[in-house]
Design goal:
5 helices
């Protein structure tokens, strides 16, 4: 497995946590409405935001695991179990693939482009309430 570069902490961790909480809330709302695709989209966005925050990162992978179990997706279940082992330590050490959406369909070490609105939150260039 390639060694990931050390990442810097977010400019405004409170804003990142607030945006992460919004994405998690939107995922729960989508789940309640039976909108599986929308739920997963919000979980992926929550994952991108959670990477620099160890507890949020683990909670996001737990939510992704719950999604996989509800949908009886064996590949995703396996992928999330593996990611749960490394999510907390990776975040705590600042070693994670920036922008990775966290699902089993992508490499766990592949950096990915960050949507502009999430990049703004992560770099401190946003008006998200903290």
């Amino acid at each position: 497995m390639p060694k990931l570069p050390k990442q810097s902490r977010p400019a405004n961790p409170s804003a990142v946590r607030a945006a992460w909480a919004i994405e998690h809330s939107l995922a729960r709302t989508a789940r309640s409405a039976g909108a599986r695709t929308e739920e997963w989209d919000h979980l992926e966005r929550a994952h991108i935001l959670s990477q620099p925050l160890a507890v949020a990162h683990v909670r996001t992978h737990l939510a992704m695991l719950s999604y996989a179990i509800r949908n009886r997706d064996r590949r995703e279940i396996t992928g999330q179990l593996i990611r749960l082992v490394v999510a907390g330590p990776g975040s705590a050490l600042g070693r994670y693939p920036v922008g990775n959406t966290g699902g089993a369909s992508v490499s766990a070490v592949k950096p990915m482009p960050i949507p502009p609105d999430l990049r703004a939150v992560l770099t401190g260039r946003t008006l998200v309430a903290s």
